[in-house]
């Protein structure tokens, strides 16, 4: 799923202190409704948050290692941010859906 706001997912600035993204509240407001309810992508984001070792099996859309690293940095910053849990994992699921070719098993 690609939306006009997809580019915003990786456009904020990761905060070094306290985690989060400079645009995380805007992302939460723009998050597609299908991510705001229970869905495989948001569940995968929660699993990755609790078990980062699962990241070894991710199937990336981007083949560039630098881009994968950048997206991983944004994903991690978002998960360390101050959004309410439901919104945090909704946006994280949305991010994953744009980063990966399939939901991590």
Word description of this protein:
- The chain is mainly α and 105 residues long.
- It has a domain at 30-99.
- The protein contains four helices and no strands.
- It has helices at residues 24-30, 40-50, 65-79, 85-99.
- Helix 3 (65-79) runs antiparallel to helix 4.
- The chain is globular and about 30 Å long.
- The model is unreliable at 1-5 (pLDDT under 50).
Throw out a few tags for this protein:
single chain, 105 residues, mainly alpha, 4 helices, disordered N terminus
Write the layout of secondary structure elements.
Blueprint: H1 24-30, H2 40-50, H3 65-79, H4 85-99
Helix pairs in contact: 2-4, 3-4
Summarize the structure.
The chain is mainly α and 105 residues long.
Beta-sheet strand percentage?
under 5%
Over the alpha carbons, how many angstroms does the gyration radius reach?
A: 12 Å
Q: What do the pLDDT scores average to?
A: 88
The poorly predicted ranges are: 1-5
Number of distinct beta strands: 0
Q: What is the tally of helical segments?
A: 4
End-to-end Cα distance, whole Å, is 19 Å
User: Considering DSSP H and I runs of 4 or more, what fraction of the residues is helical?
Assistant: 40-55%
């Amino acid at each position: 799923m690609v939306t006009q706001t997809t580019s915003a997912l990786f456009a904020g600035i990761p905060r070094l202190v306290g985690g989060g993204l400079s645009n995380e509240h805007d992302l939460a407001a723009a998050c597609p409704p299908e991510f705001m309810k229970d869905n495989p992508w948001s569940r995968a984001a929660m699993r990755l948050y609790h078990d980062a070792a699962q990241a070894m099996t991710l199937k990336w859309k981007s083949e560039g290692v630098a881009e994968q690293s950048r997206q991983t940095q944004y994903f991690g910053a978002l998960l360390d941010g101050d959004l309410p849990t439901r919104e945090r994992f909704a946006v994280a699921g949305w991010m994953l859906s744009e980063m990966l070719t399939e939901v991590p098993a």
